[in-house]
Every structure is written in structure tokens, then in C-alpha cells.
Design goal:
This protein is of the alpha+beta class and 280 residues long. Helices cover 31% and strands 19% of the residues. Strand 8 and strand 9 (251-257) form a beta hairpin. It is globular and about 55 Å long.
Length: 280
Amino acid sequence: MTTSAVRPADPPGILVAGELSSQFSELGISPGATLLVHASLRAVGPVRGGVRGVVDALLEALGKDGTLVVYTQTPNNSEPSRWAVTRGRAVAAAKWDGLRESLPAFDPARTPSYGVGVLPEEVRNRPGALRSDHPQSSFAALGPAAARITADHALNCHLGEESPLARLEELDARVLLLGVDYSVCTAFHLAEYRVPGQGSRDYGCAVDDGSGRRWHRYRDVDFDTSDFPALGEAYESRAERPVTRGRIGAADSRLFDLAPAVAYAAKWMTEHRPKWGSAE
């Protein structure tokens, strides 16, 4: 006589994908939506299957016609003189030239994301996922709209009109802040490109455009996230209540439409940020 193995019961408080999927749906995530997610799984609490279970639940809530999008940034592939900012540790100036010569070129298929948690890596490595080509500010997407979202990400444009954020705006995407606050709301960066006189600065990174590795220098927006929390609070407190809040597991979470949030952010930044005077 044979007996089948019985999986031990989950400890109390462990969420399963079906429960999470129901919570996502109750928050307002609907089948067929295009959804950009920023997440802290620690805030969500224990889930059966860990990050895999969370992604499974998101895909279940979105259905076969929905598309899941994550930010897979690689700011560690950056100008060595700025490593105190991008990597959290400074490096001696005498080493900068050597690092520019040796830093590995960005490979969208293999280069891991940096500083955005485990959920983007889970999505990026899923069969069928696509990733945009930007060496510092890429996005990965899984679903029917993935090709449109990730295609033609301009090398000299982090998060502007030639980036996946603009494609998400066109697709009426939604944003889910899962246990994180507005300080990591990447969509607000698209608004920075639309602020008159917004400052710019020089960037550098290692790329391989098919003809071999090289160090690429370009100029783009000088991003500033310091006022994102205040901006998000102002948007959330509007009379029309554009942000839906709720609990996903233990995580305080927010869901909102990307396009109107970006439009509001551009106006708010124009009114509240100091005038740059010159983009130079």
C-alpha cells in the first residue's frame, strides 16, 4: 500500500497566492490592466512561495490579457565619480579611469537589477519577459503589451518621452505602490521632463551596441526625488480621491492611474520647485 505525501500546513499568517490575488482585485486591479509595480515584500509579510507567490498572485489578478511591469534599474553601471550616490560608497579618483575601462557593459538578458528589491528580478527572469535596453534605467514587462512597452528605449533618455514610462502613459497603465511610499514612484520622473527649465547633467555608463564594449557619455535630466513624498501626499489628498488605498497582506498599498498622476506632478513641480534658470 502506498501513501501520498502530505504537505505540512502553513504556519498561521502565511498568505497564499489565491488570497493575495483576491486582495489585489479588491484593491482595484482588474483583468486586462497594464500595471507598473513598486514593492517591498518585507512589508507584505510571509507569503507561500515568497516572491514567486506574489508575482503569481499579481498575474492571476491581471489575467491573460494583463501586463505586469517592473523597474529594473542598474544605476551601479555609472560614472565612478558618482558612486557615493549610485552605489553608496565613494571610490578614489585615481581609480576612475580604470573602472570606466573595465566596468561590464549592460546586457538586458543577464545584468541584474540593482537597488529595487527582489520582485523586479523575479519578473525579469520569468519565461516570456522582455526588458528595455537602457543601460541604467531599464524596465521589464510580462504580458501582451510587453513588446510595445520595452521597445525603442532611447540610449540617451532615462525616463522621458522615449522610455517605457511614456508608453505606459499611452496605455493608460496603473501604478501599484505595494508597501512602499511615493519616494520610489518612478512615474513622477516622467513629469520632470515636462517641467520648464528642469536641470540636466552628464551621465556615463558601459554599453555594448553590437560593435563592442564602450563607455557612453550623455546628458539627461538631473533627477530629484526629495519632494516626491510631498507631491504624492498632495495628489492623494485631492477632492476627487484619485488614489485607492488598502492592505495587501500587512502592507499599506496605493493604486492609481499613471497618466493623471504624471500630469498633476508636472504642474505641481512647476509651481513648487525652485526655478533652475538654465538647463546647463
